[in-house]
Amino acid sequence: MVGNPPEGATQVSDHDWQAPGGAPAQRPAADAPNSPSAPQPGVPPTAPPLGSPPLGSPPLGTPLGWTPPPKPGLLPLRPLGFGTVLWAPFRVLRRNPAATFGSGLLVQLVSVVATLAVTVPFMLFVFSRVEGATTADADAVLSGAVGGFILLMLVPVVLSLVAGAFLQGVMVVDVASGTLGERLGFGALWKRAAKRIWPLLGWTAMLTGALLVLLAGLVLVVVLAALNDPVTLVIAILLVLLAGLGIAAVAAWLGTKLSLVPSVIVLEGAGIGTAMRRSWRLTDGFFWRTFGTLLLVGFILNIAAQVVVQPVSLIGTILAPLIDPTGTGAAVAILAVTLVVTMILSLLIGAITAVVQAALVAVIYIDLRMRKEGLDLELVRHVEQRDSVPETDPYRAPAPATPPAPVPGATAPDPMWP
């Protein structure tokens, strides 16, 4: 039982108590009289306002080891819907037009300029020889011109292969870096693509060579049949048409299954054989989705090209006889201008088509890897940690699964008993 202090003793409050030999304890500011935060008699304590940090947590603004989510890039870091896959290649042009469209335009210009540089001088030479040749020598000159033209066309074909392989590599690099929120310039894209140019060239040459062999075989059948009677020729043409349909179906199947080879070559650093096997496995279970996307985008690009180019050509063809019915200089000038405008439009649309189709393959590759191998988790981890850990390659090929090590002393299960 506690009694009252003796009379004459000084009453010491709890807040004025001090340890022996110590200084008087200071009253906390929050418990000071008339303080807004001090508990008032008869008033229950109030909860902290919403949004305030919990008790005991560091003040706002203190780094807690948390990093913000990845910045949005070209593709969301999750498995993609069909609409996203369909329109993502068109976003490539809008997001980085200078590097992507510039690369496609350069490839188209190389192809056109190389073809003109080879064919125009050769045709002028052939025409001059034909005009100066006698009747007996005309057939020999024409035969030599055909053979020489076929040989000369190998030059633009080779240049187109090299340029097309570069464009595939450039678009794969652009889509992969854009997914991580990066935007590379023209030179940086071509520099990275050049590291894998030889496997890309080998793959492109394989495709082109297989196509040329098939076409040459079909043409040879028709030519040999033409040397016989007309009935044989008709039968050969029908057989070639049927064989062409079968070859087209097989080519569509193989082309879809192997469509991811350029992406695997560039991003995973794989050889041609490994890239073919990887593409085949990634498209397992997603054949119709991949085939439908490639077919639909190709159809859209073809319709767009026809809508843009054909009206210009048609207008020029109609205006020429209307303005100059006699067919003199005005009609020729109109037709020449129409031809030039049509070529320019075809060049621009060809560049857009090449860029979009190459980018589409890279988008499908990333989507399939996110669906089947969890690439989206690896990309998120890379984006969140690339400023704090040594840079790694998030697109590297997944390590092959290894069977678990046997436990010492454990017996192997009986294969005959489930």
From TrEMBL:
- What are the alphabetically sorted keywords of the record? Membrane, Transmembrane, Transmembrane helix
Provide ranges: composition bias, Low complexity: 18-35, 408-418
Could you tell me which residue ranges the Glycerophosphoryl diester phosphodiesterase membrane domain spans? 246-373
Q: Keyword Transmembrane helix: yes or no?
A: yes
Region described as Disordered: spans on this chain: 1-68, 388-418
Annotated Pfam families: GPDPase_memb
**Residue ranges crossing the lipid bilayer per the database entry:** 105-128, 140-167, 200-227, 233-254, 286-309, 329-362
Instruction: List the protein's name.
Output: Glycerophosphoryl diester phosphodiesterase membrane domain-containing protein
Q: Which organism is it from?
A: Agromyces badenianii
Could you read off the lineage of the organism from its UniProt record? Bacteria, Bacillati, Actinomycetota, Actinomycetes, Micrococcales
